Amino acid sequence: MNKTLLPISLVTLALLAGCGSQPPAPEQAGAGVEDRNPNAVATSPVGTSSTDPYALAALKDPKSPLSKRSIYFDLDSYVVKPEYQALLDHHAKFLAKNGQMKMLIQGNADERGSREYNLSLGQKRAEAVKKALMLLGVKEAQLESVSLGEEKPACMEASESCWAQNRRGDMLYSGEF
Amino acid sequence: MLASIASTSLAQLSIEITGAGAQRMPIAITDFAGERVVSQAMTSVIRSDLERSGRFQLVDPGAVPMNENTAPNYLDWKSRGADALAAGSLSGTPDGRYETRFRLYDTQKQGAIAGLALTHTANQIRTTAHRIADTIYEKLTGERGIFSTRIAYVVKSAGRYELQIADADGNGAQSALASREPIISPAWSPDGGKIAYVSFEQKKPIIWVHDLATGKRHVAANFKGSNSAPAWAPDGRRLAVVLTKDGASQLYLVNADGSGITRLATSAGIDTEPQFSPDGEFIYFTSDRGGSPQIYRQPVAGGAAQRVTFDGSYNVTPRLSPDGKNLAFVTRDGGRFRVAVMDLASRQVQVLTDTAKDESPSFAPNGRMILFATEVGGRGVLAAVSVDGRVKQRLSVQAADVREPAWGPFSK
Questions:
Q1: ipTM more than 0.90?
Q2: DSSP classification of residue B2
Q3: B110 CB-near residues (< 8 Å, 6+ apart)
Q4: Which of B408, B377, B380, B384 has its CA nearest to residue B396?
Q5: pLDDT tens digits for range B351-408
Q6: A153/A92 same-domain check
Q7: Cα distance from A120 to chain B (closest Cα, Å)?
Q8: For B359, which of A115, A123, A145 is closest by C-beta distance?
């Protein structure tokens, strides 16, 4: 774990300097790049507060577990699979640490079948992610769940791999929605 | 057999007949006298209406000039194979309008069995033709025709959604609403004057009621979470809706003006797609309370829900026939989504289509055909199938996806 912390802080610095690929978000504007001492980054001992994995900056770090924002679901299902517990745990810790941050959870469904049922299915998926986060200690006031149904597919092809990508809950933070 | 209607715009629906009824009555529609001067749309619209219904076979009328006052040569028509014959005329009136007159003859009984005189403007030629086709259809089949009714549907082109209203034959499409965000679930009020629908224009699903004549609209449900699946009560005063304000999708009743919200049913899972039975006694809906999405019904006045569909793991979108005897729905079988119909008395189910991505079935007001959305060549099209599965039509718009059809009621 400690081994990964230094590279994260380096990449964080690079992102704050404007090389990020995340969606534009207000809090990235004018971040305190000038305050950082390049030498300190290069030589900083691991495990200090400047490498906190749940600092705000971690949100923009492609190597942070927080960069993963999607929970994928089985056909007709709104059960969060155990493999996503670790990811949800990271997001729960981030939200606990950053009480001012809010999360919008968007539930999606693949294009097949009834649009209205898919809208409800998307809502259930978003709710399932919300409940899982609350079980991990996140305050309900920080969370909002909505459904996009099958209306905003991430992948447009008619194939199982594409449909699987669309059966999804996305976690968006303040400034991203 | 191809009966394409002339396209005047990109948004025009064109209709292709892909199957026809087994027993079709042979009928001849002669060219109406005088229509060459005004518009030849009159008889061509009547002919294609009747042919599209799958219940008539058009007999070539030849070139013998006839009008509604010409005595038919019954033996000649019988020898051509026509059981029925229609003849008429179109003439100008002193006030600049037109009068269309027609008579319908039975060549077996050798007599006139119906007639009509209609005064109309040049813009109403198609409407007049639909009225005549309705008269012929009703006289010869004993059922009301649907040629004068309208359909609503959503056209999606690049970044644009339009709620359109067209004649039942796809002509005369008009846009009621255009938006950059999705529009789904249009539902006609029982009097045909309004459409309730779900619009995402405010970045979340909200239910609107839209008056077609004035274009004025109001919000019928905008609660926390999503608001969707509006269904009119037969009295036109209330809507059954689906809200997530208390968690997952649940059924509520709301007055059409947005007031007086009450809970209709409670379940731990998803309840959605409510639809009133024509007598207003029951709400049919989709629920996954039994572990998979199935159709249930529940008395509106209160009482336990009963499961209606049992075969398969996915039966959704219940739609009652106007007489309340048949239930159309979408069933999934081996990854294919197809329109099926259940005879509610016998619980017999018949799958009606051979397509794979059917959605949104909607009965014609005479209960004879079911309009639905499907996909052909990767593109959304509308299709219609008769309740016996024999007659099939396809309606498509060039270079756009068409979806979410709803067949309007009989005009009052």
A1: yes
A2: -
A3: B74
A4: B380
A5: 999 999 999 999 999 999 999 999 998 899 999 999 999 999 888 777 789 999 999 9
A6: yes
A7: 6
A8: A115
